[in-house]
Structures are given as structure tokens and as C-alpha cells.
Specification:
The protein is an alpha+beta fold and 112 residues long. 33% of the residues lie in helices and 28% in strands.
């Protein structure tokens, strides 16, 4: 499987950006990626005051490459960039070596 990481710095982001991002993911972004062709799953991660990140796992290289190309073209104007006030600092493809599901199971939810 093929991965992609998109990360924004929150170092100079506006006060309260973490809640704004979480609400955007729950209200809009989660639905956009649910059921997306070629995408196995996406997670949104954040370290408050430091960074916000989308982690994507695609079924194959073609799906990742197509998404990376289309996103990179508009990354600076994307909703995340608009909320944070700056473009991503990292758009990085990677290899997914393995995925394990723990005994607690996997729950897809718009807000954790």
C-alpha cells in the first residue's frame, strides 16, 4: 500500500485553530474522504500548537500519485491552509509496510 503525509505547522496559527480544525474535519472533511475511490483510509492527527496532519493510505501507487498531484496543485488554497493561515510544510509519499487491527477494533468516526 502507498501512503501520503500532508502536514501543516501550527506554530503561527490563530488562537483556537485546533478546535476550528477538529470541527472542519467532523463537519466537512470526513465525509469528503469516506468512500473515496482508491483510498483505503485517512487519519487526521494533531499536536496542538505544533502541527496538523492528514495521513492517507491508498490502494496503489496510481491512486496516490493522482491524489498527490491534484492536491499539490491547490495545497496553498486548501481548506486546511485557509484555516491555519499557511500552506503545508510537508507533502510526502511513503510506503506502508503493514497494518494491524488491535482487539479494540477500528472505528471510523468524524470526530474522535
Amino acid at each position: 500500500m502507498k501512503g501520503l503525509t500532508v502536514r501543516w505547522s501550527l506554530a503561527a496559527a490563530p488562537e483556537g485553530v485546533e478546535e476550528t480544525l477538529a470541527t472542519y474535519v467532523a463537519d466537512t472533511s470526513h465525509a469528503r474522504f469516506t468512500g473515496m475511490d482508491g483510498l483505503a483510509y485517512k487519519t487526521w492527527r494533531m499536536l496542538p500548537g505544533q502541527w496538523f496532519e492528514g495521513c492517507y493510505v491508498f490502494a496503489d501507487d496510481a491512486a496516490r500519485a493522482a491524489f498527490q498531484e491534484s492536491f499539490s496543485a491547490v495545497a496553498a488554497e486548501s481548506p486546511g491552509s485557509q484555516i491555519i493561515g499557511s500552506a503545508p510544510i510537508l507533502i510526502e509519499p511513503c510506503e506502508i509496510v503493514s497494518i494491524a487491527e488491535g482487539a479494540a477494533g477500528f472505528t471510523a468516526a468524524p470526530r474522535a
